[in-house]
Amino acid sequence: MTTQTSFTDTVRRMWDTRPPRIPSEQGGNSKIAGVCEGIGVRYQIDPTIVRVLFVVSLFTLGGGLPAYLLAWLAMPRYGMSTSPMQAVARRKEQLTPPERKERSTGWWLIIFFILTSGLFTSEGTLASTGILAIVALLVAWWALHLRTPEPPAGLLADAPARTLPDPVDLSTYLPAEGTAVPPGRTSPPAWDPLGTAPFAWDLPDPGPAPQPQPRKPRIWPWIALGLLGTLGALTVLGGILGLWVGGNYEDIAEDRSYAPTSGAELQTHYKGEIGDLIVDLRRLSDLDDSRDVTVEGGIGPVNVFLPDDVPVALECEEGIGESNCIPGSYNDDAAGETLNVRVEGGIGPVRVTVPAAS
């Protein structure tokens, strides 16, 4: 009975203190949604380690992708207490405007999770790798929680009763639009040139420097992560070998940038893979005939720059991630034929830069 109660309490504590997402627009050093950044800050580890593990598991026949989507579903934005999964489960009338945006994202995440995990659409390799990656994610989460059960003060919107004893600098992170700074953050305000704050005034003279207490080493969490990394590394090597034989090894995780200057250089389809996709049309000259161009996002940010002197008809299709794409017509008075641009979001933010005069 005691073991069952302890297990239940630990799971509840894990959920109550789960990390928030910290995307790039909120100050995080993220490429997609800020999942890895949030995990790193919450459990005080290098976010790069988390990214490497997700990428490694991604090559396990795509098993890491549903695990990432599941984490995205469960983690709220920094400054919020409602995750996309929770927003979907509630009625729209009960949500605040920021939470309604999370609800829309949540539905897209659920759809992509169903399609990529194979748990509901197929059996065999795809389903088994999806389950393996999700189980590995849960085991790693359990290990990280046991290592660091208390979150940094000021990280969670629902402030827990206990936080890390040492303060963590969160001053570079901004709360989600329409939300307040989480309670407990004690970083000096940005407007204070001396880095002072009311909580730091009239402090007593410091006493003797405390001697660091030796911590009992915990090796088994690193063993678990090591086993996961070894399994993923072996899978990556096998995948790279297969791609080498098939001749597609150059398509792995690379940024793609295109800047056509004429209709002859203009492609009909620009597709992102893993990494940034940049399509810069600002130097495009007048078109002799109407052209159709599709920009399709992959896994990573998509940046599209519309031309300044070519008529453009823009269409937008949402993916998973923030998007500022607004359909419509631009440069209606420009010479030449119309360029029809369709931007299809993938997994990551979409940014479309329109002409300054539009």
In short:
It contains 8 helices and 9 strands. It has 358 residues and is α/β, with parallel strands linked by helices.
* Main pleated sheet: 5 strands, mixed
Distance between the termini: 67 Å
Q: Quote the beta fraction.
A: 5-15%
Number of strands: 9
Strands of the biggest beta sheet: in what spatial order?
Answer: 2-4-8-6-7
Give the helix/strand class. Answer: alpha/beta
Whole-number tally of structural domains? 2
| Helix-strand sequence | HHHHHHHHEEEEEEEEE
Q: If you average the pLDDT, what whole number results?
A: 77
Low-confidence stretches: 188-203, 214-221, 233-252
Number of helices: 8
* Percent in helix: 25-40%
Q: Report the radius of gyration as a whole number of Å.
A: 24 Å
Structural features:
single chain; 358 residues; alpha/beta; 4-stranded parallel sheet; 8 helices; cell membrane; membrane; transmembrane
How would you describe this structure to a colleague?
This protein has 358 residues and is of the alpha/beta class. The protein has two domains: 2-176 and 220-243, no CATH class; 256-353, no CATH class. 35% of the residues lie in helices and 11% in strands. The strands form two sheets. A five-stranded mixed sheet has the order 2-4-8-6-7, with no helix packed on it. Strands 1-3-5-9 form a four-stranded parallel sheet, with no helix packed on it. Helix 3 packs across helix 4 (64-74), helix 4 packs antiparallel against helix 6 and helix 7 (125-147) packs antiparallel against helix 8. The longest helix has 27 residues, at 220-246. The termini are far apart. 33% of the residues are buried.
